[in-house]
Amino acid sequence: PVSASAYVIYVNGKSLKSDKLTVECGGGTATYNPAKKELTLNNATLTREIYNSLQELTIVLVGDNVINIDSSTNRIAIESTQKITLIGDGSLDITVDSDNNAIESSGDICLDMNGDLTITDSKQGGICSDGNIEISGSSNIIIDSYNVGIEAENDIAISDDVDLNITTASD
């Protein structure tokens, strides 16, 4: 028998494989399209992270999506060793209660959304990249973090159409 090849992408604690590209997440789903390198969150509720170390990844938001990381897992909500892009008209509400940032990438981070992104991180930061961060689209982004809202090793570019509100406990 031929075994299913695994992608180095984990969603809600489950590895995505060529024979299992959809993961049930609460009342919704997370579905990976390897040809497009897209992970679609469709009304998904996750209690574990999205982790990618294989390739650039685009996360498509459909409907209302939630990622809740509590202190028992001590994880980052969305972590990638490659460029990560969030697109779509859906929303994403991230709550992190661990010693990690909410969204972190060793590569660039691109937010080109038309929906809402809300990040609440009680112990660390919001969005952190070892590369560049680009935020565009007509999104509403609210970041309430402990120490830093948005941090990039290189450049940060934010378009005029973005409504951005950042508060930190260290203000």
Structure description:
By secondary structure, the protein is an all-beta fold. It has no helices and 21 strands. The chain has strands at 6-11, 14-17, 22-25, 28-33, 38-42, 45-46, 50-52, 57-62, 64-69, 78-80, 84-88, 91-96, 103-105, 109-113, 116-121, 127-129, 133-136, 140-145, 150-152, 156-158, 163-168. The chain has an 8-stranded mixed β-sheet, with no helix packed on it.
Gist?
With 171 residues, this protein is an all-beta fold.
Tell me the layout of helices and strands.
Blueprint lengths: L5 E6 L2 E4 L4 E4 L2 E6 L4 E5 L2 E2 L3 E3 L4 E6 L1 E6 L8 E3 L3 E5 L2 E6 L6 E3 L3 E5 L2 E6 L5 E3 L3 E4 L3 E6 L4 E3 L3 E3 L4 E6 L3
Parallel strand pairs: 5-8, 6-9, 7-10, 8-11, 9-12, 10-13, 11-14, 12-15, 13-16, 14-17, 15-18, 16-19, 17-20, 18-21
Antiparallel strand pairs: 1-2, 1-7, 3-4, 4-5
What is the tally of helical segments?
Answer: 0
- In percent terms, what proportion of residues is strand? over 45%
How is the main sheet built?
A: 8 strands, mixed
Sequence stretches where pLDDT stays below 50 over 5 or more residues: none
The Rg value, from CA coordinates, equals 15 Å
Per the principal axes of the C-alpha atoms, what is the gross shape?
A: globular
Structural class: mainly beta
On the 0-100 scale, what is the average pLDDT? Answer: 91
SSE order, one letter for each helix or strand: EEEEEEEEEEEEEEEEEEEEE
Helix content: under 10%
How far apart lie the N and C ends? 58 Å
Question: What is the strand arrangement across the widest sheet?
Answer: 3-4-5-8-11-14-17-20
